[in-house]
Amino acid sequence: MKSHLLVRGGFFFYFCCMTIEQLYELYIQYPSVQTDTRKLKRGDIFFALKGPSFNGNTFARQALESGAAYAIVDEKEYISGPQTIWVEDVLTTLQQLARHHRLQFSSLPGGRKVPFIAITGSNGKTTTKELVHAVLSTTFKAYTTQGNLNNHIGIPLTILSIRSDAEVAVIEMGANHQKEIEGYCTYALPTHGVITNCGKAHLEGFGGVEGVRKGKGELYDYLRIHEGTAFVMWDYDYLRTMSKGIREVITYGTKEADYVGNLLQSEPFLQVSIEKGASIKKIRTQMVGEYNLPNVLVAVAIGKYFEIADDKIEKAIEEYAPTNSRSQLVTSGTNQIVMDAYNANPSSMRAAIENFAKMHSPDKVVMLGAMAELGSDSLEEHQAIIELLAKFSWKEVVLVGGDFQKIDHPFTGLNNVAEAAEWFRHKQFQHTAILIKGSRSMQMEKVLA
Asked: What is the CB neighbour count within 10 angstroms for residue 112?
């Protein structure tokens, strides 16, 4: 530990630049980390992160006055006493502390190691994470990513929230550019992994579909090097190819896999039969959409891999109820609303439209918000969605904002979600099926506000 003597306002005090090992000793005493003073609890360690429009260092004193045990800063002018710890970079320190904590689960008494399952993909990773966690929690003390804390800040916070009683952890990894997953793996150290799919998402950052595969494939690369286990959707030829060379590959799909399941029905809710690897005749989910079939299958595969009984797997999946505008079926009066507005990209948008078109309802209304982060492909991808919509018969189609507004089309075009909400209220639909979907930036769930 390096100590430095400073003078502030006529008072002398020390501040410390600690090693990660020394900081970890403090974390053991105060095992709760916070980066937002609005959510701070007494005894938390406050990490003063910085971003393009904020500087957490400026809140360090406030955090301590609110009961934080320590404040970690990287700007010396915000040191205010012995409870302030200066480091060269707060974010890097947070990630290093998370890695050090993660390592504690790699060598436990009796040679036991806690499995860390990483989940990434273009679509379905949050639903998959929730299903897998639900299944594992029937038998093990399982920890997982809360909400969508799946980035360079959220993943370290997730790891640091894992207590010593953990028997398994499920870590969601989101990414919008190459080398991001690779970076997460350096401190999450996954032993098992899932890539749900590689679709047309974040094309601007990844540089096209091949870039998406390369970026998501960084998880497979890590598992290959570190002799890990991959759960692979065997229906997708590209995942078969990408997973070659991994020490242990467990396959799931609708044919030719270790765990085989098929669609029984998708309306109003998805029902699945497991035909190989488990004896489950019918799983009655609370999710809409045939596109959730792979998410159910991988949850079954992981459950069986960890020797969980069939009846527990079935019950866990059936009891899982989607939230946060993900594959939800909402009843509003006489209307049935498919609320899938948490996010959207060309792959998930196409799947949602095709699934909705199969629903048995005389009157169907589609309300779509524009898609984001598509770069130079954006206009072309929005045009493709318009052409897909034109293949089906709808009562109404509303396209909201973004690049939908730059393309001529025969549907109703609105500028923003406020206009869409007003349009929806004015229509006063009855006995109608309604699909609401869009990128997170569009906040299409506000149509129902």
From this structure: 10
Instruction: In whole angstroms, give the CA distance from residue 397 to residue 385.
Output: 12
**CATH of the domain spanning 104-319:** 3.40.1190.10
Q: Which two tokens stand for residue 279?
A: 């004896």
For the chain, residues with pLDDT lower than 50 are 1-15
Pairwise CA distance, residues 267 & 245, whole Å: 39
In the chain, domain spans: 2-88, 104-319, 328-448
Residue with tokens 């860390």: 116
Concatenate the DSSP letters of all residues of 304-344 into one string. HHTT--HHHHHHHHHH----TTSSEEEEETTEEEEEE-S--
SS3 199: coil
Q: Are 289 and 355 in contact (CB under 8 A)?
A: yes
CB atoms within 10 A of CB 320: 20
- Secondary structure E strands in 25-178: 33-34, 45-47, 50-51, 54-55, 70-73, 84-86, 116-120, 142-144, 168-172
249-255: long-range contacts, CB 8 A cutoff, minimum separation 24 = 250/301, 250/305, 251/301, 252/277, 252/294, 252/297, 252/298, 252/300, 252/301, 253/294, 253/297, 254/293
Distance CA 405, CA 57 (A): 41
Where does 328-448 sit in CATH, by number?
3.90.190.20
Provide the pLDDT for residue 374: 92
Flag whether the pTM goes above 0.90: no
| Residue 173 identity (one-letter amino acid) | M
So what's the pLDDT on residue 8? Answer: 39
319 exposed, middle or buried (CB, 10 Å; 0-12, 13-18, 19+)?
exposed
pLDDT in tens, 269-312: 999 999 999 999 999 999 998 999 999 999 999 999 999 999 99
Q: Cα(80)–Cα(254) distance, rounded to whole angstroms?
A: 61
**Which of 254, 303, 246, 121 is closest to 196 using CA atoms?**
121
Q: Which of 424, 423, 422, 415 is nearest to 442 (CA)?
A: 415
> Does 362 sit behind a cis peptide bond, omega within 30 degrees of 0 on the bond before it?
no
Q: What is the pLDDT of residue 16?
A: 52
C-alpha separations of 212 from 85, 93, 173, 239, 418 in Å: 39, 29, 14, 12, 33
- State pLDDT tens for residues 399-426: 999 999 999 999 999 999 999 999 999 9
How far apart are alpha carbons 59 and 417 in whole angstroms? 34
Identify the architecture of domain 2-88 in CATH: 3-Layer(aba) Sandwich (3.40)
CB 447 within 8 A of CB 423: no
